[in-house]
Design brief:
It is an enzyme of class 2 (transferase). Helices cover 33% and strands 23% of the residues. The chain has helices at residues 36-46, 61-66, 71-79, 83-90, 110-115, 118-121, 143-154, 217-223, 234-244, 262-274, 280-289; strands at 5-9, 30-31, 34-35, 51-56, 98-103, 126-129, 133-136, 157-163, 173-177, 186-194, 205-213, 247-251, 255-258. The strands form three sheets. Strands 5-4-1-6-11-8-12-10-9 form a nine-stranded mixed sheet. A two-stranded antiparallel ribbon has the order 2-3. Helix 3 (71-79) packs antiparallel against helix 4 (83-90) and helix 8 (217-223) crosses helix 9. The longest helix is centred in the last third of the chain and has 13 residues, at 262-274. The protein is globular and about 60 Å long. The structure holds 1-O-phosphono-alpha-D-glucopyranose (G1P). The site of 1-O-phosphono-alpha-D-glucopyranose (G1P) has 13 residues, from strand 11 and helix 9.
């Protein structure tokens, strides 16, 4: 069976995005006219995902509310004949996609967050999408769907990577590969390390935050000791998996925006703004008016 489930860890407190994230989840910060998390969910849905599993926190109910119906609002819009808006809010997700949430009771790291979804994932292989990073890929077949295709053909786990400047390797998971694959292609990984010190990294290919993983990684996560930052790292469980199974690094063709950082967020607003079907042209005029 193809990959139908995706885990989105959204329990993080978003300290990099304060003060905005003091009272709204960082995932709900608006990129143009919708919350950042919608782009990530739509990326998953475009790749064939049918069940979104949010690993969340008590302070983040607005994320679940966003993907739920809001009858009061719907009725008001209907009575006011605002049919376009009604369509917008009721068609965020296609009917065959469901959203489930589980709680991460303690902030013990990304690996622990993924493990919190174990009971929902069961025996199914699954995708993981980290919601801070937006992946913009205008092609019909997005990067995530190519990773799923490759997984279906080879059963090899897929880790999405992109090249980063050498002085930034200590902010990411970094993969060890014999050579850099072409964009849109995968290569077998020899290792993976979380946030290596500058000058010690095995390559400059960084883990973007999109993974296709086998169900059995949950057993490995249960045995993963605390690693970098004193947290249970998904990277460490993948390194264990790679000792017995083929794991591949998939080099993305799209573009990333790290909405966990303020500048990355502003860049996302610019790019998604100019490409917006309704607002794009007027937004470009606004940018010209700045006469930078
Ligand atoms: C996580 C992962 C890291 C990855 C990064 C991508 O780190 O642990 O391997 O490169 O996301 O954004 P975090 O940014 O949560 O510290």
């Amino acid at each position: 069976m193809s990959i139908k489930k995706a885990i989105l860890p959204v329990a993080g407190l978003g300290t990099r995005f304060l003060p905005a994230s003091k009272s709204i989840p960082k995932e709900m910060v608006t990129v143009v006219d919708r919350p950042a998390i919608e782009y990530v969910v739509k990326e998953a849905v475009a790749a064939g995902i049918e069940q979104i599993i949010l690993v969340t926190h008590s302070s983040k109910a607005s994320i679940e509310n966003y993907f739920d119906r809001n009858f009061e609002l719907e009725t008001t819009l209907e009575n006011k004949k605002k049919i376009d808006l009604l369509k917008e809010i009721t068609e965020i997700l296609p009917p065959h996609v469901s959203v489930i949430s589980v709680r991460q009771p303690q902030a013990l790291g990304l690996g622990h967050a993924v493990l919190c979804a174990k009971a929902v994932v069961g025996n199914d292989d699954f995708a993981v999408l980290l919601p801070d990073v937006l992946v913009k890929d205008p092609s019909e077949t997005n990067d995530l769907s190519l990773m799923i295709q490759r997984f279906n053909e080879t059963q090899a786990s897929q880790i999405m990577v992109e090249a980063v400047p050498d002085n930034l390797v200590d902010q990411y998971g970094i993969v060890d590969v014999a050579s850099t694959p072409a964009e849109g292609h995968s290569i077998q990984m020899q290792g993976i390390v979380e946030k290596p010190a500058v000058g010690t990294a095995p390559s400059n290919l960084s883990v973007v935050g999109r993974y296709i993983l086998p169900a059995k990684i949950m057993q490995l996560l249960e045995q993963t000791p605390k690693g970098a930052g004193n947290e249970i790292q998904l990277t460490d469980a993948i390194a264990m998996l790679q000792e017995t199974d083929t794991v591949e690094a998939y080099r993305m063709k799209g573009q990333t925006f790290d909405c966990g950082s303020k500048l990355g967020y502003l860049k996302a607003v610019l790019h998604y703004g100019v490409d917006h079907p309704k607002l794009g042209d007027a937004f470009k005029d606004l940018i010209k008016e700045l006469k930078l």
